Amino acid sequence: MTPEGRTRRWATRWGLPTTAAAVLLAVAHTTALNAEPLPDEGAPEGSDQHYAGSEIAKREGWAGARSSAAPDPTGKVPGMDVSSHQGDVDWGRPWGDGARFAYVKATEGTGYTNPHFQQQYEGSRGVGMVRGAYHFALPDRSDGGTQADYFVDHGGGWAGDGMTLPGALDVEYNPYGDTCYGKDQDSMAEWVRQFSGRLAERTGRHATIYTSTNWWNQCVGDKLRLGESNPLWVAHYTDQLGQLPSGWDYQTFWQWQAAGQFPGDQNLFNGDAGQLTRLASG
User: Fold this and answer.
1) Is 172 noted as a catalytic residue in this protein?
2) Which of 108, 168, 239, 245 might form a disulfide with 69, Cβ 3.0–4.6 angstroms?
3) Are residues 68 and 92 in the same domain?
4) How far is CA 65 from the centre of its chain?
5) Which segments carry the region annotation Disordered (predicted)?
6) Are 203 and 102 found together in one domain?
7) How far is Cα 209 from Cα 216, in angstroms, rounded to an integer?
8) How far is CA 3 from CA 6, 19, 27, 35, in A?
9) Out of 55, 140, 170, 172, which one is annotated catalytic?
10) Which listed residue (45, 55, 60, 81) is catalytic?
11) DSSP 8-state code for residue 36
């Protein structure tokens, strides 16, 4: 229907002058153009542009920022995380530069798998790295258990071989709309609990939780305390760690810079190589 036809239909339906109906229709059209997309409006379940920290960097003002100095690496193990954003990785180079572990994006929601996952996941192990898979959560699309099953079925398994890290759950800002995916803290906490519980049933390991302090404290807060069961992988892009999310007293992994010496994001494991192997061994 033409804009003129819609205007006449509005005027007839509501008993308005044609000019008034035209103004209302224009306002409604402008509002629709400026509105944030919602899941039921056709937003996809996954993108090469979504990866650990992609939305944190945008929302917390870190996009394009580089730390002026590196954190003190004493007693820690350097590593990295990658997604399809990096494509196929030449794993010999980061290994030669000192990276000793990697997390690889496997899935997002229940409709996306990383097309480079096998090359990245198996390639990192092939050069000697301890590696693990992670899932980018879309908590407004399906329940936590359903997304955990999708993750495990598409690469998120675990083996107690000393080379496989527990699967990680990436919970951060919604790339499609509302920061907390339309959930209050209680319902978001329940979603994370569902995912981690189902992952533990399927693999024997609770999820490593990837998040930022700001997002977690806003969207989950103190409704869920996972410090005794779930390793923390925290994103904070400076050389000083700062406050941790509610529920943890220390971090297991720290994503401290979004780009640098290694492909993808730069990370530190909070322990030595022996402790990293023990984490992978369960």
Assistant:
1) yes
2) 239
3) yes
4) 19
5) 60-91
6) yes
7) 10
8) 5, 12, 13, 20
9) 172
10) 81
11) P
Token pair, residue 116, equals: 């480079």
Full residue range of the structural domain in which residue 161 is found: 49-281
Split the chain (282 residues) into runs of 10 and give each run's mean pLDDT.
43 44 38 38 80 94 69 93 96 98 98 97 98 98 98 97 97 96 98 98 98 98 96 95 96 95 96 98 93
Residues 30 and 55 reside in one and the same domain:
no
DSSP code per residue over 192-244: HHHHHHHHHHHHSSPPEEEE-HHHHHHHTGGG---TTTS-EEEE--SSS--PP
Looking at residue 247, its amino acid is G
Q: Which amino acid is at 101?
A: F
The β-bridge partners of 78 are: 268
Examine residue 44 and state whether it is found in any structural domain, yes or no. no
Tell me the pTM: 0.85
Please say if 190 is a catalytic residue. no
Q: Are residues 58 and 97 in the same domain?
A: yes
What is the total count of domains within the chain? 2
Helix (H) or strand (E) holding 211, with range, is strand 208-211
Helix (H, G, I), strand (E, B) or coil at 147: helix
* CATH code, 270: 3.20.20.80
